[in-house]
């Protein structure tokens, strides 16, 4: 069972987490929601499209100009507060590795800390405990934030992803974070080459078998691009194929750019799995 | 003595778990349940159900054949691993009847009979006689679907003859006219994919044999999916 902002989701519920970047330089949207106006419009649109969660981030994942904690806060804290005010029931996640930023966004109304860099700042889990908010525990292979994978290798990438994320999750709960709000994420492409990300997708059932709710972040990533030899902007079909496989394996939260398409894939896979009825079945039944 | 009859159709979509998120059969089910409730209100001592099936004969009560139509065990039509065949499931017509009876409630004992879809006058008369001879106050629930060929999008595509056939049935039901039902031709009904012809004729023959007069009421007559559904009740003051 997963609980976010007081709502409970059973294991078969699939949630869409819409990405909202407060960055001038993220790889996919290239600053489209850098300004307040477009950023709020993006939130309204994804909520309207049925997103269950928004994931607000102030620093792009790839290497680039260094962004300090003060600048990161300047980019997102007031925005989180504004989204909270406009959408009192919306689950707000914040993508940050810094405890100081985490504390500030929790005070502004965040419900979930998306620790995309795998516990790089160990105090972030303490913030989750302090505020009673959720935490996403990711696997990065121990790399520093905003670094690209370089010759990283694993005896068994799936085993290592499971072991490290479960250890982070158990630590967070031991610190006092709410157990039913802690998720694990294999973190496709973070500390991994394309082969690693493909194998994590193929064997995601081993990760869901841990019982921890699994978040996957696949959207338009390089492992899709390298697999299909397609640039950013032409990776939606590949993303959705990976989404379907993860859904089949029981992942619960999908961090995405495209909400509508993802929702359709999740609903379709849920119906194939037999955990969601068709919207309307009449053919052959009249 | 037959104190009353009710006619209902038996499309799978009356089984709530088979239509998914939308209850597309809600209006029809409501009419069917009202008809069955009218029947129960007549104070019968036994409720006899007659429905078409591949073969005739008495049937023990059992579940509706949800699995056979692709449904799974759990509520809401979704249960993941529903791969087991249902044991003892009734033919569709009797299974739908059982659901309607369950929904209406009441403590009247129920006997169920299947009549072969292609039954001719002999088997029809035999079952009708057995029902008409019963000494109890009998209420008869008959699963009497019309043609499934009432339009180009109908399950059996369009056959213009369907309209005259179904209108003949509707008028017979609206006029409590068993002889009109007995005149339906089995060959034509089969060509029109009218699944209720034999069952309707069992009802007509049983009622004709008893000789009582009935007040007819048609509760529903429409073809929202290209199949004619008619819901009717005949009540006797006896």
Describe the structure in your own words:
The complex is a heterodimer of chains A (286) and B (238). By secondary structure, chain A is α/β, with parallel strands linked by helices. Chain A has a single domain (2-15, 63-68, 91-273), classed as Dihydropteroate synthase-like (TIM Barrel, Alpha-Beta Barrel), CATH 3.20.20. Chain A has helices at residues 36-48, 69-86, 99-108, 123-131, 157-175, 194-202, 204-208, 222-228, 236-248, 259-273, and strands at residues 2-4, 7-9, 15-21, 53-57, 91-95, 112-115, 134-138, 182-185, 215-217, 253-256. In chain A, the strands form two sheets. Chain A has an eight-stranded parallel sheet with strand order 8-7-6-5-4-3-10-9. Chain B is α/β, with parallel strands linked by helices. Chain B has one domain: 3-Layer(aba) Sandwich (Protocatechuate 4,5-dioxygenase, Chain B), CATH 3.40.830. Chain B is 34% helix and 19% strand. Chain B has helices at residues 26-41, 92-104, 121-132, 161-174, 178-182, 186-191, 197-210, and strands spanning 2-8, 46-53, 57-59, 110-116, 138-143, 215-222, 229-235. A seven-stranded mixed sheet of chain B has the order 3-4-2-5-1-7-6, with helices on both faces. The relative contact order of chain B is 0.23. Residues 74-81 of chain B have low confidence and may be disordered. Classes of the chains: A alpha/beta (286), B alpha/beta (238). The interface between A and B is medium-sized, with 14 and 26 residues.
Question: Taking Cα atoms only, what radius of gyration of chain B do you get, to the nearest Å?
Answer: 17 Å
Taking strands numbered 1, 2, ... along the chain, how are they ordered across the largest sheet of chain B? 3-4-2-5-1-7-6
Q: What is the CATH topology of chain B?
A: Protocatechuate 4,5-dioxygenase, Chain B
Per DSSP, the total helix count of chain A is: 10
Helix content of chain B: 25-40%
Which runs of chain B of at least 5 residues are low in confidence (pLDDT < 50)?
Answer: 74-81
Q: In percent, how helical is the residue content of chain A?
A: 40-55%
Assembly status: heterodimer
| Category from helices, strands and their pairing of chain B | alpha/beta
What's the CATH superfamily of chain A, by name? Answer: Dihydropteroate synthase-like
Q: pLDDT average of chain B, as an integer?
A: 94
- CATH level-two architecture of chain B: 3-Layer(aba) Sandwich
Mean pLDDT metric of chain A: 96
What's the structural domain tally of chain B?
1
What's the CATH class of chain B, please? Alpha Beta
Terminal CA distance of chain A reads 38 Å
Task: Give me the number of helical elements of chain B.
Answer: 7
Instruction: Tell me the domain tally of chain A.
Output: 1
Q: Which sheet architecture does the biggest sheet of chain B show?
A: 7 strands, mixed
Taking pLDDT < 50 over at least 5 consecutive residues as the criterion, the unreliable ranges of chain A are none
User: What's the β-strand tally of chain A?
Assistant: 10
